[in-house]
Design a protein that fits this description.
Layout: E1 6-10, H1 15-25, E2 29-33, E3 47-51, H2 57-70, E4 76-80, H3 83-86, E5 97-100, H4 105-116, H5 122-137, E6 163-166, E7 172-175, E8 178-180, H6 186-198, E9 203-204, H7 205-212, H8 218-239, E10 245-249, E11 252-256, E12 261-263, H9 264-280, H10 284-297, H11 311-337, H12 341-354, H13 359-373, H14 375-393, H15 399-410
């Protein structure tokens, strides 16, 4: 199943990090970050687990300080596979506990279950029951799926942006509304995407090198970066009227450009953030419409036009995929609550196309099929779920899925 609870795991993508991820992924959505990046702030995690990975304690403390810039409230646990590093004479401030791996797995899960309980406790279920009763009493008109849907000012796409980049799925680039060819080199394409993605922020040279050439020597990486920036400047000058300058100052590159720039990634993230805000305000119809618009923008994985292994591209691709799955999960739940079963079925099928081990999507399909087509299709979906979990994870369906099966069979 795709759990609503997200656990952020910070550490280099080694064997131990993957073991921790596998151990938690049956109950939580685990998102791995090798480094502290601004994308960490995208998520609202149940907890953050830092894998110490043999790092000196002072370095871990420094990471904790920086982590609080992105996640000021999330509980933090330190997990280490080295006994000499796992023992802390005094627990650092802001850290719930320091655990060893794999001996501390049971304790780690106990912490997560304890923090999860308030979110899924009696009062949340009671609130949801009242909301469902309220929704049933209202005669709702089915929301329109077609665009445009009304959104607060600032969320709609800019009118005729000077530069427009579609980076989700098939990559497209436009200037003043006219299609542009992408640069032939995949590295240069990724470099242009990086600058558009971060505009109007300044981009530190060190971060560019780490994201593109982390295994190269300093001199080699700087030379590659200079060549890429030079090619990018020439490309913009040749293809874009009043082309923005890519300038360098204080060890950082930036677009010297005050004109509108649109990327579907930034719009996708704005809509996702807006939907979450609407949910917190209990304005669920507006949240659903924002989720729909974001889903329409997500036409495929980030920068599918790049097949090379570029660390920055892979990192953003992975994080956006996790967000899309979380968004589809919540959107399908809202659709089922409103009995918009055909649309809910499409959302659940899209989840399963991405990851067919997400149990919540199978359950919602079962629920929709019962209401639309009867028990047979629901039971078929259950057996498909069982087969998938067994073949790919060696696991059985959760108690929640078993309970839904018994309910369907009992109503037959």
């Amino acid at each position: 199943m795709l759990p609503p609870q997200i656990v952020l795991l910070l550490g280099k993508d080694g064997d131990t990090v993957q073991e921790i991820r596998r151990s938690l992924s049956t109950s939580y959505q685990v998102v791995v970050f090798e480094k502290l990046e601004k994308e960490i702030a995208w998520f609202k995690p149940l907890a953050v687990v830092i894998h110490q990975n043999g790092s000196p304690r002072q370095e871990v403390l420094h990471r904790l300080v920086r982590l609080r810039q992105f996640q000021p409230k999330a509980p933090v646990l330190i997990c280490s596979s080295s006994p000499e590093y796992g023992h802390w004479p005094q627990r650092p401030g802001g850290v719930e506990d320091c655990l060893s791996w794999p001996d501390g797995l049971a304790q780690l899960k106990a912490y997560l279950q304890r923090w999860e309980a308030p979110r899924t406790g009696f009062w949340l279920r009671f609130k949801q029951t009242l909301l469902n009763l309220k929704n049933r009493k209202k005669k709702r008109k089915e929301p329109e799926l077609s665009l445009p849907l009304e959104l607060p000012s600032g969320l709609a796409e800019p009118v005729q942006p000077v530069l427009e980049a579609r980076l989700l799925g098939s990559c497209e680039l436009k200037a003043h509304g006219n299609p542009l060819p992408w640069i032939n080199s995949e590295v240069n394409r990724a470099m242009l995407a990086y600058i558009l993605y971060h505009h109007p922020e300044r981009m530190l040279r060190r971060k560019l090198i780490d994201g593109f050439w982390p295994d190269s020597s300093e001199d080699s990486a700087r030379n590659c970066l200079n060549v890429a920036i030079s090619s990018l400047r020439r490309y913009l000058k040749d293809n874009v009227a009043d082309a923005p300058e890519v300038n360098f100052r204080e060890n950082a590159y930036y677009f010297d450009f005050s004109q509108p720039v649109f990327t579907d990634v930034q719009e996708f993230l704005r809509l996702w953030t807006h939907a979450q805000a609407m949910e917190r305000a209990n304005r669920l119809d507006e949240a659903l419409n924002a989720y729909r618009r974001a889903n329409l923008l997500y036409k495929g994985e980030f920068m599918e036009c790049i097949s090379r292994d570029i660390i920055w591209v892979e990192s953003v691709r992975s994080k956006l995929k996790e967000i899309h799955l979380s968004m589809l999960d919540r959107m399908s739940e809202l659709l089922v609550e409103r009995k918009l079963y055909p649309e809910a079925i499409n959302a659940c099928k899209r989840i399963i196309e991405i990851d067919d081990c997400i149990e919540s999507a199978h359950r919602r399909l079962m629920h929709c099929y019962v209401h639309m087509h009867g028990r047979r299709m629901a039971l078929r979906q259950y057996h498909h779920c069982c087969k998938t979990l067994e073949e790919k994870l060696g696991a059985r369906p959760s108690r929640e899925t078993q309970a839904l099966l018994e309910e369907i069979q009992g109503n037959g």
